[in-house]
Design goal:
The protein is α/β, with parallel strands linked by helices and 470 residues long. It has three domains: 67 residues, no CATH class; 124 residues, Aspartate Aminotransferase, domain 1 (Alpha-Beta Complex), CATH 3.90.1150.180; 249 residues, Aspartate Aminotransferase, domain 2 (3-Layer(aba) Sandwich). It contains 20 helices and 15 strands. Strands 2-10-9-8-7-3-6 form a seven-stranded mixed beta sheet, sandwiched between helices. Strands 11-12-15-14 form a four-stranded antiparallel beta sheet. Strands 1-13 form a two-stranded parallel sheet.
Length: 470
């Protein structure tokens, strides 16, 4: 029978829509989505028949099953939960910081119904959306005032546009950083309307360099923390305290972009010392800006703290309307900042801080539990062992820092590590690891205990799917 003749045996769209399986599908999904899936399925069969790649027509039950698969695939969310076994704590591609449980509850509460985003409960009139987090930031950093915008690049642009539009901003050449996505400080500065004045050299800048660059047109001295790289060796930088003193002498504002936003001294847990926001405020910086979704472990946002008079100028800028955050950001940020009010509470309930400070013995113990969960899945000629390796902080935070860790190293016979990694990315709850020496590694630092079962189920499905594909 020719392809043209076989076409006559294909059911029409209306007939397939009457199939009980498809009718049940319409009860749970929009009818238009199901109709599109039916048409796509039938069109696919027509193409195969006309091309001669099929010699029979699938029965209605098979077609209906394929329609179900199409609809379920289309309905599957593009942004969904995954397991981070890559060992990068702040993994930008995987959404950076996992939120604390308190922040999760605050987010759900804010979106479940209406919320008190911008209302004064005492007067019943319109209030200040920044008030919820401003008090917390004042207490944590010692600043007089605070403002939150949608990311730290926006914070930098807002500050420079407000304080230095058409005027000069002095910055060390060694601090002209580029962040992810090719966004560069010089480009952000140009967009703000400020005029860039570079001083010093890549590796060494002295106070006299700044002093010599100041003119009647200078509005701001800008310091930018090199949070995503390190220059070592023959280097010299000017402290924020020295720049503040110079700024006061010359009546020039001093802005400190501290990048990752450390609110606690990480060196107490053996990590490199990052510039503390509170230290910059105490040193007298007029404005300090930093990210909310890195070391703070909150939502993506740019946080600005500083002197009341300067922050009020920023709030009056019309750009604030374009850069402001919504209720979701404020709800999550407020709940996250509250964790920093008590250090013991912070270490117990803040996911990023827990992962940063996790003892090696705890990581190794978790890896052994992961290994046991995979015992019946990775077997025979396969390899599975617990070995030492290193984790990363990620997202331009604590650059070049390697955290000692333990990983589960896996090799499945007849299957490359890259193929296993690809298979684990395609399952309903993707599992991410890293490939090293043709071994697939799962880092125990970034996998939670309640995710071990998901890892085992995912590994079983990925290996099974690979076997079916041959």
């Amino acid at each position: 029978m020719s392809g043209t003749q076989l076409l006559q045996l294909l059911p029409k769209v209306d007939r397939l829509l009457e199939d009980e399986t498809v009718r049940e599908l319409i009860r749970h999904h929009p009818r238009s989505v199901v109709v599109d899936a039916v048409r796509q399925e039938l069109e696919g069969e027509r193409s195969r028949l006309l091309a001669g790649s099929a010699t029979t027509v699938p029965d209605t039950s098979t077609l209906a099953g394929n329609v179900v698969a199409r609809v379920e695939a289309a309905a599957f969310p593009g942004i969904r939960r995954c397991v981070n076994g890559a060992g990068i704590i702040l993994h930008t591609a995987l959404g950076r910081a996992p939120l604390a449980e308190a922040a999760q509850h605050a987010l759900a509460d804010a979106v479940r119904s209406y919320c008190t985003l911008q209302v004064n409960l005492e007067t019943g009139k319109r209030g200040d959306r920044y008030a919820h987090v401003e008090k917390l930031l004042q207490r944590i950093t010692g600043a007089e005032a605070a403002l939150v915008v949608n990311n730290n690049a926006a914070a930098t642009m807002l500050i420079l546009n407000t304080l230095a539009q058409g005027k000069e901003v002095v910055i060390s050449r060694g601090e002209l950083v580029e962040i992810g996505g090719s966004f560069r400080i010089p480009d952000v500065m140009a967009r703000s309307g400020a005029v860039l004045v570079e001083v010093g050299t890549t590796n060494r800048t002295h106070l006299k360099d700044y002093r010599g660059a100041l003119t009647q047109q200078t509005a701001v001295i800008l310091k930018v923390h090199q949070s995503n790289y390190r220059i070592e060796g023959f280097t010299s930088q000017v402290s924020i305290a020295e720049l503040v003193q110079l700024g006061r002498e010359q009546k020039v504002l001093v802005v400190d972009d501290v990048g990752s936003g450390a609110l606690v001294d990480l060196s107490r847990w053996g990590l490199p010392k990052e510039p503390l926001v509170a230290d910059s405020v105490a040193a007298g910086a007029d404005v300090v800006c930093f990210s909310g979704d890195k070391l703070i472990g909150g939502p993506q946002c740019g946080i600005i703290v500083g002197k009341r008079a300067v922050v009020d100028r920023l709030k009056a800028n019309q750009l604030v309307r374009a850069l402001r955050c919504d209720k979701l950001t404020f709800a999550v940020l407020e709940a996250t900042l509250r964790l920093f009010l008590d250090e013991d509470w912070l270490l117990r309930h803040h996911p990023v801080m827990k992962m940063l400070t996790m003892p090696e013995r705890e990581i190794r113990s978790r890896c052994n539990r992961i290994k046991r969960s995979l015992a019946g899945i990775v077997r025979g000629g396969d390899t599975i062992r617990v070995v030492r390796d290193t984790s990363e902080v990620g997202s331009g935070s604590l650059a070049a820092v390697q955290l000692p860790t333990w990983v589960v190293a896996i090799a499945v016979g007849g299957m490359s590590a890259d193929r296993l990694a690809a298979g684990l990315r395609k399952i309903p709850t993707p599992v991410f690891g890293r490939v090293k020496d043709d071994l697939f590694l799962l880092d125990g630092r970034t996998i939670r205990d309640d995710e071990i079962k998901l890892v085992a189920e995912g590994m079983k499905q990925a290996i099974s799917d690979a076997g079916q594909q041959g």
